[in-house]
Amino acid sequence: MRELTFKGYLLFQLKELSGCNTTSLYIFSNLASSNARLQDALTMYLVLYTKEDLKKRLIKKYSYLKTACNQLSGLEENNINDFLNSERLSHYRTIYQNYIYEKDKKVLENKLKQMMYQKICFTRKSKNMSNYRIYKELNLNPGNANAFLKYGDVSKVSLDTARKILAFVNKY
Asked: What is the pTM of this model?
């Protein structure tokens, strides 16, 4: 699975906030005039990832973008964290913090599943419960369930499935 980039995250947000399945900056710019959240994400995208000539054409056509882009002048990928520390840029900082959360969510989920795995193993051994019993009772995929229950491969089950297994083992 590819790692989420800030550019990819902003494009996803632009599509999500606009309700359009497009990557057209003109369409986003047209819709952003009445949508502040879309405007903030668009401004960040324009400043960071748009070629200068296209950015100038968009600013000329949509005057509201000029002030927003000027606010972020000097913003680059390598200084985002420091640049957005100002209180007046808190709405942009929120976008970046949401990206960081999304990017790190998988790692945090895997840590949580690893802790659940340890609890499941301890409880399963004390109750002398087989893997077969667990995946048959819960109607799970045997291959994925065994990879998780035998070897601790947290990539084979979802967080929800790990929770179901833990609840079942505790209740058994």
From this structure: 0.74
